[in-house]
Amino acid sequence: MAKAIKMSKRISKVNQVIKEELARLIQKKFAPKFITVTDVETSLDLSYAKIWISVYNENTKKVLQELAHAAPNFQTYLGKKLFIKNIPKLTFRLDKSAERVEKIDKLLYRVKK
Length: 113
Prior knowledge:
Blueprint: H1 2-29, E1 34-42, E2 48-56, H2 60-81, E3 89-94, H3 97-112
Parallel strand pairs: 2-3
Antiparallel strand pairs: 1-2
Helix pairs in contact: 1-2
């Protein structure tokens, strides 16, 4: 039990560092595009990390392709920032939660009318 808690704290900390570092790097590399890193999910064995992003006013498919192309460079950068043996392989996913919230808000607004 203690090992699982310790591991989850470690993964949580790794997720936070990856999120902060990638947010800075993406903002710098992809300016003036508005791309936000919304969440990071790293596997327990640190072999891969899903990076959830939201994109505003851009072609999301193209942005995801550009991020996938840049992923090896991002991993190299993270290797210099993280003090872990294996740097996770990065995959980028579109976070659609904002769209779902907007749909729900519109439906609730209609119901109130």
